[in-house]
# Entry
Amino acid sequence: MSRIGGFLLVMLIAMATAAGVAFVLYRNELGRLRDAVSRGSLVAKLDIGPVEYADSGAGIPLLSIHGSGGGFDQGLALASSLMGDGFRIIAPSRYGYLRTPVPQDPSPAAQADALAALLTKLDVPKAVVVGVSAGAQSAVELSLRHPDKVAALILVVPALYSPTSPVSIDVDPGNRFAFWAVNAGGDFAWWAAENIAPSVLIRFLGVRPALVAAAPQAERDRVMSFVRGVEPLSLRFSGINLDSAPELHEQPLAEIAVPALIVSARDDLFNTLPAAEFAAARIPRAKLVVYDTGGHLLVGRTQEVRMAIRTFLAGAGLVPSNH
# Structure
């Protein structure tokens, strides 16, 4: 065998070994993630259809409605990060996420009816409702359709209607890859990107990678926990598919009668600020908090957001038990 032939053979063996090791690591990680999301939640059998949820903590009831790519696990993580202690967190998986199936009518209005039914089943007469990103639509509908269930409304980087500048994301090469992985339900593609090019996924989640790179280690870890939290992608694909083609329309926001807080960032790559400003201008007495930086995940703003939320709730007479 020639020297060149021997070199190529060694390279092929090394590549095959590396690919085999990567596949084993991927299978082990995917198995761990599937096991994690199979525990820690229940499925409520409602007349309107099954809804998965987690119920954690003690204090003021808080309904945490997750965004795109989430599930009950993201709802718990978001509430813990942005709210702090003193709440009983009820975190449902929205339609198409994890163990909540897609019904015949998957609209935000139908989702709101299901969430109201979930609160009733759990004997929760009223809750603080937090809607993050794509979860804001269901939160708004719940406030409109079941105002008796809502003690206060908090919308964080809301993916809502704006007449001037709609919520969107730039379709650069990195985002095209991420879109492909999502549309393919590609667990391996997402896992590989996490380990090889996480900045691609960070941008896909609406945050400038440079902002994350400059953040403290704890904040970088928080961002990567959200990146990893999209896995198993295949168990969230149906919900992401619904969120990818939203029918955003103007809602009768002036009819919302509960205290409302809206939070966004100017550099959110999903462009939620115009929608936040539009909603704040129409919901009576709504308070708007805008940060110059932070992106869609409000990087570096966790403590400020938590303080803004707790101050808002205190003003509404809703003080967490450890406040």
About this structure: The longest strand covers residues 49-56. Residues 14-21 have pLDDT under 50 and may be disordered.
